[in-house]
Amino acid sequence: MPVDKAKQVRATLASLEKMSTKRDRANLAKFGINATKAFGVSMANLQVLAKRLGPSHELAAGLWDTGWYEARMLASLIDEADRVTSAQMDRWCRDFDNWGICDTVCFKLFDRAPHAWAKVPPWCKKPQEFTRRAGFALLASLAGHDKSAPDAKFLDGLRLVERHAADDRNFVKKGVSWALRRIGTRNVALHRESVALARRLAASTDASERWIGKDALRDLTRPLVTRRLVIS
Length: 232
Known about the structure:
By secondary structure, the chain is mainly alpha-helical. The chain has two domains: about 1-80, no CATH class; about 85-230, Alpha Horseshoe (Leucine-rich Repeat Variant), CATH 1.25.10. About 75% of the residues lie in helices and about 0% in strands. It has 14 helices and no strands. The protein has helices at about 5-20, 20-30, 45-55, 55-65, 70-80, 85-95, 100-110, 115-125, 130-145, 150-165, 170-185, 190-200, 205-220, 225-230. The radius of gyration is 19 Å and the shape is elongated. It starts with a helix and ends with a helix.
């Protein structure tokens, strides 16, 4: 890493430390985020710092390598999506160790990267908890943000949902439910397919499948959702 970039990484870590509070550190545990290296900085303050720093692929890489939770969160906010490589996505994904960093990276950065769709199936099939979570978090993020993707991609996503809905690990099943719910809000056709899948899962004898199905149905059948789909 160039000297000036290393200096910027150190300065950014110092800024994060100054922003840290006991309350924000306590909130990590409160929300089930297990981060071994954490300052305790709110997302609001991370966004302020990200705006001040501006986009930088190189700085993002340096911050990620520090291993600090907030530095990695910040990296996802300042990295340049069009410069994110396939190898980087796999490398960062292997580092995911809690739902906070997994979901933020997928929602704020990876779903705009050139290789986003190519990562969904293989990550969903991996046995590691947060790699599989990342596959479904990325699918959910694409369902919300990729306005040009054809329905066929999301129908493939529903097949992944059905295949892995029996995974009873907490962070996986919540990711699977998130993907199912987000796909079901894209349009009327995908809503119909998602509700049908949710009903099948809700009627399952498997506890995880049943939980996912009922969780998704509660959301997908809300009047607010159905009215918006009809209007659009």
